[in-house]
Every structure is written in C-alpha cells, then in structure tokens.
Automatic annotation (TrEMBL):
Transmembrane segments: none annotated. Residues 18-78 form the RNA polymerase sigma-70 region domain. The keyword NADP does not apply. It holds the Pfam family DUF6596. This is RNA polymerase sigma factor. Residues 178-278 form the DUF6596 domain. Belongs to the sigma-70 factor family. ECF subfamily. PANTHER family: BLL6612 PROTEIN (PTHR47756:SF2), BLL6612 PROTEIN-RELATED (PTHR47756). Residues 109-160 form the RNA polymerase sigma factor 70 region 4 type domain. InterPro entries: DUF6596, RNA_pol_sigma-70_dom, RNA_pol_sigma70_r2, RNA_pol_sigma70_r4_t2, RNA_pol_sigma_r2, RNA_pol_sigma_r3/r4-like, TPR-like_helical_dom_sf, WH-like_DNA-bd_sf.
Length: 411
C-alpha cells in the first residue's frame, strides 16, 4: 500500500463519522450524507496522489462532501424551487447547538438509535453511519446475510426521513429511556474494534475501540448516575487495557491465559476497577446491577489476578449465573461454560455447550470452545473437526492463526 493509500485509509477511519455527521446536520438526509461522504473519499483516492495529502484531511473531506451533496441535490432537482432550497441549505450559517453536548457524532448516534426504529435496525444503521463498518462487516457481527443487513439499513434511513426523526441529543427528560439502545450500539462497535471481523482489516481496530470509549464517556457526562453507562465504560476500559497483549508480534491472537499481564495498561485497569467498585456499592445499597455492570465485574475479577492460576473462577461463575438470569442468550451461556470447565471440568462444560448447537452452529466461538474442551478430554479427532469449523467461520486474521496453530498441535 502506497503512502497516499495509507493516508486515505487513516482518514477514513478517523473522519468518516465526522463527515457523515456534519452532512447530516447540514442537509438532514442520511442517504445524501452517506453518498456524498463516499464520493468525497473516492475523490481523495483520485486527487491525493497527484495533489498531495492536504494538511487537514478532515476539513478537505468535509468541504468536498458538502460540494458533492449540493451538486447531487441540484442534479436531481428539476424545479427552480428545489434549486433555491438547495442553495439555502448549503449557504446557511452554522445551526444552533441542539443538545446537551455539542458533538455531531453523538447526535448522529441518537438519531440512528431512535425508538421508532426496530432494535436491530438501530444497531446496523449506527455501525454503518457512525462506525463506518461495511455491510459485510456488520453482517458478520449479526450472523446474517449481507442482503438482510442492507435492507435493514435502507428501511431505517427511509423511516428516519418519513417520520422526520430529529437530529439531536434528546432532552434530559428523554435521555434515560433512550440510552439503552445507544449503549447496545456502542458495545457492538467496541467489540468489532476489539476483534475485527473484516478479512482486510487489522485484527484489532484501535479507531473503533477508541471511538466507542470516547462516546461512552460523553454519555456518562450526560447521565453520571446511570449504572449501565458506568458499567459499559468500565467493561470497555478493562477490555481495552489488555489490547496490546492480545496479538503477538507474529500476528496471532494470544489467549487470556497466555498474555503478559505486566503489559496491561495499569491506568485503564485502575479506572475500570474504580467504576466497578462504585457500582458494587450501589448494588449493596439496593440498586441491582444490569448486564454491563455484571460483565464489567467479571472482567474486574480477571484483571485482578496477577497470574491466571490466581483467577477466582467461583466468583466468575457466580457472576455468570446472575447474568444468565438477566440475559439467557446462548452466547452468555457459552461464555459461562468456559468458567464451568475450570471448576467442574471439561466434560460437564462440554455437555452444557453441546446443548447450544442448534442456535450457535454458525458462530465460530461455539466451535472454538468445543474444540478446546474436546482437546482437554483427549478426543483429538473430534477436536480437529471442531477447529476446522471454527477456522472456516472466523473472520479475524489473528484468531484464525491462533486456531490453526492449536489444531495443528493435535496428535
């Protein structure tokens, strides 16, 4: 990849959401914003090799996208009043701040997560419009077909336009009811960055994890007393603290048990632990923890152990038992089985995992977990077959390398 190509790639990671959000604020049309942003990046691919990378790529892209948008409006308009409308939209001054925090991307998230949209559509639309993920990447995250995701996104944008859903951060009174959908989106954006599924992407995408953390911090400013906001932030921080230890110099995923714990980010762990302690105090006072708070507590137990042998698996299993009561999804049950194996042995855990097969057969982590449990039970041929399925389904290059090595070590 040339230096210019790398510059365009970096600009896409850093500026996509800003450009789309700025155009949405100006023109009030997600379709137009996305198309004009895409055209601006395509123009950068053509122009930057000849003209050089501009000093401020974000400003260049936003200006170019604005021009592309107004050109598209004029090109598609047939009547003079449409031309006048386009000129008014393009020439007007900066709009007044529309929310408690003056951040275009946060406004865009709340627009994409409006309750008028179906929950799955909210997540898919936000991953596309704010996270900048491709339809293929989102489809992998949802375990659905690309055409299904494309339809969800198209319908969601049409609904926003038809229902005139406003582009703003909700009022203080509406925030508590709206924040749950936003947290779900940010969690998925973070997860995509933490274990990127795109075959042509880095195995860990710092741009996505950093953006998810930044926006979660902003929401915490809006809702400082919301336990789930604090829980999600703690979960992200404790997970991000391990990022540099997760991939080896050779590009292979490093399991939690094998990571160099001395390389974990102590400052992020300290902040995450502080947030977890605050939520534990609230729980002791009678406020039951939600899903993100329990997940953060599980991560706090992991990051409190100086050595994997010091891990308090009984506490982790107890936390998973509590989480299953809140969220009995097959993926939560699968993760619980990992802790179960440490306490009751791989045979008991395998029986729990095998019951999930109809619902998780297309999920690579299900087969990877089975492969490991079968390996520990000495059932090499079955373990190899499970590794083969996991490798075929895994989209992350580092994870594929790890699974391949584990399979090849079998006798």
């Amino acid at each position: 990849m040339s230096g210019t190509d790398e510059a365009v790639s970096r600009a896409h990671r850093a500026e996509w959401a800003r450009v789309v959000a700025a155009l949405t604020r100006r023109f009030g049309d997600l379709d137009l914003a996305e198309e004009a942003a895409a055209e601006a990046f395509a123009t950068a691919v053509q122009r930057w090799p000849e003209d050089g990378v501009p000093p401020n790529p974000g400003a260049w892209l936003t200006t170019t996208a604005n021009r592309k948008a107004i050109d598209r409006i004029r090109r598609e308009s047939k009547r003079d009043d449409k031309h006048r409308e386009a000129r008014m939209v393009y020439d007007r001054g900066a709009p007044e701040p529309l929310g408690a925090i003056d951040d275009d991307r946060l406004r865009l998230i709340f627009t994409c997560c409006h309750p008028a949209l179906a929950p799955q559509a909210r997540v898919a639309l936000t991953l596309r419009m704010v996270g900048g993920l491709t339809v293929a990447e989102i489809a992998r995250a949802f375990l659905v077909r690309e055409t299904t995701l494309e339809q969800r996104i198209t319908r969601a944008k049409a609904k926003i336009k038809a229902a005139r859903i406003p582009y703003r951060v909700p009022s203080a009174g509406d925030l508590p009811a709206r924040v749950g959908g936003v947290l779900a989106v940010l969690y998925l954006v973070f997860n995509e960055g933490y274990l990127a599924t795109g075959p042509g992407t880095d195995p860990v995408r710092l741009d996505l994890t950093a953006e998810a953390i930044r926006l979660t911090r902003l929401i915490r400013v809006l809702l400082p007393d919301d336990g789930e906001v604090a829980g999600l932030l703690a979960l992200m921080l404790l997970t991000e603290a391990r990022r540099t230890a997760r991939v080896s110099s050779g590009g292979e995923l490093v399991s939690l048990a094998e990571q160099d714990r001395g390389s974990w980010d102590a400052a992020l762990i300290a902040e995450g632990h502080r947030l977890v302690r605050e939520r534990l105090a609230a729980a002791a006072a009678g406020t039951p923890p939600g899903r993100y708070q329990i997940l953060a507590a599980i991560n706090a137990v992991h990051t409190s152990a100086r050595d994997v042998r010091d891990t308090d698996w009984s506490q982790i299993l107890a936390l998973y038992d509590r989480l299953v009561r809140l969220d009995p999804s097959p993926i939560v049950v699968l993760n619980r089985a990992v802790a179960l194996a440490e306490l009751d042995g791989p045979e008991v855990a395998l029986a729990a995992v095998d019951r999930l097969e109809p619902r998780l057969d297309g999920y690579h982590a299900y087969h990877a977990t089975r492969a490991d449990l079968l390996r520990r039970l000495g059932r090499g041929r079955e373990s190899r077959a499970a590794y083969d399925k996991a490798i075929a389904l895994a989209g992350n290059t580092a994870e594929t390398a790890y699974l391949t090595r584990r399979r090849d070590q079998l006798h």
